[in-house]
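Hey Z.,

So I finally got round to the NA7 thing we talked about over coffee. Here's the setup:
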Amino acid sequence: MGKSNFDVIVVGAGFAGLYMLYKLRELGLSACVLEKADDVGGTWYWNRYPGARCDIESVEYSYSFSPELEQEWEWSERYASQPEILRYLQHVANRFDLRRDIRFNTTVTRARWQEKEAGWQVDTDQGDTLTARFCIFGTGCLSSPNRPNIPGLDNFGGDIFVTGLWPHDGVDFTGKRVAVIGTGSSGIQSIPVIARQAQHVAVFQRTPNFVVPAQNRPLEDHEQAEIKLTYRDLREQARHSIGGVARGAAPSPRPALATPPEDLRRELDERWEFGGLGGFLNSHPDTVFDEKAADCIAAYLRMRVRGIVQDPATAELLCPTTYPVGSKRLCVDIGYFETFNRDNVTLVDLHAYPIDRITEKGVVAGGDLHDVDIIVLATGFDAMTGALGRIDIRGRDDQALADKWSAGPRTYLGLMAAGFPNMFTITGPGSPSVISNMVTSIEQHVDWIGGLLADLHDAPQTVIEAMPEAEEVWTAHVTAVAEPTIFMQANSWYLGANVPGKPRVFMPYIGGVGTYRAICEAVAAQGYPGFARDGKGKAALPDFFSFLPMPA
Ligand code: NA7
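And the result:
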C-alpha cells in the first residue's frame, strides 16, 4: 500500500494535477496524486469520442513552465486532436518522471478536515486512507458527465455511448443507425465523423449553437519554428490577455454598432476565413455588453449557416435565435453544417418534437419512433462543481462542501472556500477557468498556490483559509462583473442551467485572465489579505473593480 502521509494530496492527474505535482516537487514537498483513471490525461483521457479536438490552438494549449518541453514537442495540427493531446500529457508525465507519485485506478470518495491534526484525511475506493497537510483538487471543470433523465433510457436494446466516457477501443458505426442527442461542442465535433461511417444519423437538437469554422490545417515546420522562437513573448502576452491566448484575430478597436455594415461584413469575412473562437468572441468592444451589438455578429453567423445548408427549413432550425452569440460557449467545427447536406443525416427539432421516451428500439420524439442501433449522449457536463460534488468533502465542523454550495459555489478568488482550511481548487468556480485557455489558467493557479506554500514553508503548522468576509466580497464581485453582460441571458452550463435543479449562478470569473492575474498577484504582494493564517488575517481587501479595464 505504501506511504500514507504526505505534505500534499492532489486529486486528479490532468493538466492541473500534473503541473501541481511538478511544482510541489520543486518546493521539496512530498505529494501523492490520486487519479480515477488508469493513466494521466483528465479530460483528454475520457473524451475519446470521434472528432474530439481542442478549440484553442495547440501551440497555446500547452504548458509554458518548461522552455525545453516547449522546444521539444512538435504539434502536428493547428488544433490538436484528443489522441495528440493525450500523447503530450503522457510525454509530460514520463519526461518529468511524474508517474511514481501518482496512484492510478483510485477514486477519492471522501476528504475530511481533521481539526486536531490540522490536516486532511482522504479516503479512496481502494480502501486506503491517506493524510496530508494540504489537499488540492485538480478535478477539472468538465469532468462529470450529465446523463439526461430521459424516461426509458435504460430500456434501450442497443448500445448507449456517452461522449465524455467514450470506450477506449472505439466504436464502429459502420452500417448502424445512430441517434445523437445533444448539439454542443461534443455533438458538433462528433456528428460529421459518425455520419461518414454510419448508415443513418438522427441528430436530436434542443438548442442550436453558434458555430465558427476551425479552419484546421497541418502546422508547417517553418511556422512552428517561428512560434518556438517567440514563445516567451507569446506566453507573456497570453498571461495578460482577456482569454489566456495571444494568437488569433485581434479585437476590433471599433464597436460593432459603430462600424458601417459593409466594413463589418468585410471584417467578419476575414475572421471567418481565419477561423477559431477568438475571431468571434470579444470581436468588438460592445458585443459582450450590448445585445444589439451581439446581434450583428449573430446575423452574420446565421447568414453563413444559410449559405452552407441546402435545405432552407433545416438551415433555419440550425440558426440560433433565442440567446446572444457568445453567451453559450461558441463551438468550433470541421464540416458540421455541411453534414446536414448528406442523405443519411436528419435533424430532429426537440422544440417541435420533444423526446417522449426511449424504448427498446429507439427514441420516440413527438410521437414518432426513430428506430436506431446506437444512442450517443453528447449531453454535456455538470460543469465546474460536478466533480467536486461527487466527493464527500467535509471542512470545519463537518460541514459538507455540497451543503455550503447548495445555493451556488462560493469561493475567495476561486482558490479557497471559507471553512475548508488548507484546501485549494485549481481553476475552481470564481476564477476565469472555462472562460479562458484552461492551460494558461491552470498554470497561473498552480504558480500562485506554489508561491503561497513556499511562503508557509518555514511555518509547517500554519493553517491557511479564506476569510468568510473575503469570500462574500469575491463571490459578489464575480456576479457583479457578469451581470451587465450578455452571459446572463442564456441557459448555459456557465450558469448551471443545463443540470435540472442546479442553482442559476454564473460560475466563472469573466473579468479576464490578465485582470484576474493582477488581482491574485496584488493579494500575494499585500501579504494575502482575505486569507487567515491560524485564524488571523487582514480583512482589508484590494478594490477588485479597480483592476478591470475601463469600459470603452
Ligand atoms: P454542452 O455544450 O453542454 O452541450 C450539451 C448538449 O446536449 C446541448 O446541446 C444540450 O442542449 C443538449 N442536452 C442536454 N441535456 C439534454 C436533454 N435532456 N435532452 C436533449 N438535449 C440535451 O456539452 P458538450 O460536451 O458538447 O461541450 C462541453 C464543452 O466541452 C464545450 O463547451 C467545450 O468547452 C468543450 P441545450 O443547449 O442545453 O438546450
